[in-house]
Write a structure and sequence with these properties.
heterodimer; A: mainly alpha; MetI-like fold; 2 domains; 79% helix; B: mainly alpha; two-stranded antiparallel ribbon; 2% strand; disordered N terminus
């Protein structure tokens, strides 16, 4: 057992290189003066400057952010209740269906989700006159629906991990169920709720396919805009955009790691 | 442990408050997750038309005011008659299956290595698997076009190393689609595998070694069977979405790459044939029902444990 597992280490090194090669390339190319991938002509920030002057792109980014905040928040409320119900309500009528509707969105191919929601919205508009046209509302509803499943899974996993004695103690002392939930359960699962919100926010911000189906003219989200550009053969502005995203995410994770380390020490 | 527990830890959801709380996500999912599938089925049986929306209602009134049900199997018969759709479905299943196996071959050793690491190193290795997921999927897939194209980074490297004398055509082939799918879905394979391997009790391996098992025997007879739920969960998390994948074949695949997600999108967006696109979505769902049930089954067992 003392032999160094050379094969295992080389597969791991290959795997991580594989995961990070495209990201590294994007970051490098975002500073390349040339628009060609294969030629390095010099360091330049021109793509960053062009990025912020690209009005259509900035408008799309703003729409995407607003949709992501709305759907992540709605999905966090729905998903927290769903996760709590799955882990604390025991048996209830139609539980099997509920479990299925939480698990299926995790694997459902996006083209199916996209077309089925679009056909729903079109049918609803014909029958009820709402939602009128497609745009912010329909995209937000679609994102809320698939993000709810992810939040529910994260919250349920957290609830499964801590014991119920605190909740039971509060109950024995006469606290009504709603109060037990707000005062005991909610603070305990707060980290999972925050993680769920962030996950939902990222999923919403990243979605191309579902948004392509359920958006209408005049409501182009950032990924839909970028996707259209990519198919035409895109300028390195996208690399600059991706580099900014990578930098933000890395800083966020480092900050979170520092905060949690200090919290553990304090 | 002598006295029977007086309060059941999981009481029935009977109170009105609980019912109300549960109703909110329940109704939402019924309305926006389940109902849409029924509507897909309905529209796949509608007659196509040139209007907006491009299909006719199933139930309508005649000129003389009588209700009439108009079913059209044009979408479904088109689907069964034309080899294109069958080939696209088989092509998708094949590409997804090959990618899933490749993902497993790369992901299993990685998950194993992470589970064997200790302390901070393990946290960092795990974080590095998750990190790419937080950055744009679309842009990461797009970055592969710069690596794989004939004048791209990979060919430049291979030429410089003298391994090849002319650039390889990788972009716009099925190989590029495999690379794209393995790359995008690798974290979804690693995480459930890691969860299964991390729980593994080291004393079992020690016992196997004491009883004379060689390390590879212990792996085959102890580690692998115990990590099987992780293998199934990870494989389904890769396979099912990969069958319907649209962005990766669109960006990295070529004209010969036949995948059902791409065909569905073309019928819907370019040909405006909604009944046919709906029939394609329904057919895809039928094919995926078994894998989805398998995934649900593994997840439920994991929760029970």
């Amino acid at each position: 057992m003392t032999r160094r597992p050379v094969l295992l280490l080389s597969v791991m090194a290959f795997g991580y290189a594989f995961l990070y090669l495209p990201i590294a390339l994007m970051v490098v190319l975002s500073f390349n003066e040339s628009r060609l991938v294969s030629v390095w002509t010099g360091f330049s920030l021109r793509w960053y400057a062009e990025l912020f002057e690209n009005e259509a792109l900035v408008r799309a980014a703003w729409l995407s952010l607003r949709i992501a905040v709305v759907s992540a928040t709605a999905a966090t409320v729905l998903g927290t209740i769903a996760g709590f119900a799955l882990s604390r309500f025991g048996r209830f009528g139609g539980r099997w269906l509920f479990v299925g509707m939480i698990a299926a969105p995790l694997v459902m191919p996006e083209v199916i989700t996209g077309i089925s929601l679009l056909l729903l919205f079109v049918s609803m508009e014909q029958a009820l006159g709402w939602p009128a046209g497609r745009g912010f509302t329909t995209i937000a509803i679609a994102h809320t629906t698939f993000c709810t499943a992810y939040v529910a899974v994260v919250v349920q996993a957290r609830l499964a991990g801590f014991d119920r004695s605190l909740e039971e103690a509060a109950q024995d002392l006469g606290a009504p169920p709603a109060k037990v939930f707000l005062v005991i359960t909610l603070p305990l699962i707060a980290p999972a709720i925050v993680a769920g919100w962030l996950l939902a926010f990222t999923l919403s911000l990243d979605d191309v396919v579902v948004a392509s189906f359920v958006s209408g003219p005049g409501a182009t989200t950032l990924p839909v805009h970028v996707f259209a550009g990519v198919r035409r053969g895109l300028s390195p502005q996208v690399n600059a955009l991706a580099t900014l995203v990578v930098a933000t995410v890395t800083l966020g994770i480092l900050a979170a790691a520092l905060v949690s380390r200090n919290a553990r020490r304090g | 442990m002598s006295a029977p527990a007086p309060a059941p830890s999981a009481p029935r959801a009977s109170s009105a408050g609980r019912r109300l709380a549960l109703a909110i996500p329940y109704v939402w999912l019924l309305l926006f997750f389940l109902l849409p599938f029924l509507i897909v089925l309905k529209i796949s049986l509608s007659e196509g038309t040139l209007g907006a929306p491009p299909y006719l209602p199933l139930l309508g009134r005649d000129a003389d005011g009588a209700w009439r049900l108009t079913l059209s199997f044009a979408g479904w018969s088109h689907l069964l008659d034309d080899d294109l759709y069958r080939d696209a479905l088989i092509g998708s299943l094949r590409i997804a299956a090959v990618s899933t196996v490749l993902c497993l071959l790369l992901g299993y050793p990685m998950a194993y290595g992470i589970a064997r690491a200790r302390g901070t190193r393990r946290t960092i290795l795990l974080m590095l698997v998750v990190l790419p997921f937080w950055t744009s999927f679309l842009i990461r897939v797009y970055a592969w076009t710069g690596i794989l194209r004939t004048n791209g980074v990979l060919n430049a490297l291979l030429l410089w190393l003298g391994l090849i004398d002319r650039p390889l055509a990788i972009l716009n082939t099925d190989v590029a689609v495999y690379i794209g799918i393995v790359y995008s879905y690798l974290p979804f394979m690693i995480l459930p595998l890691y969860a299964a391997l991390e729980r593994l009790d080291d004393t079992l391996l020690e016992a196997a070694a004491d009883l004379g098992c060689r390390p590879w025997q212990a792996f085959l007879r102890v580690t692998l069977p115990l990590s099987l739920p992780g293998v199934i969960a990870g494989s389904m998390l890769v396979f099912i979405p990969a069958v319907g994948e649209f962005v990766i074949p669109e960006l990295l695949g070529g004209p010969d790459t036949l995948m059902i997600g791409k065909v569905l999108w073309t019928e819907f967006a370019a040909n405006n044939d909604w009944p046919l696109a709906a029939a394609l979505a329904a057919a895809l769902l039928v094919v995926l029902v078994l894998p989805i049930l398998l995934f649900q089954h593994v997840r439920r067992r994991e929760e029970g444990a």
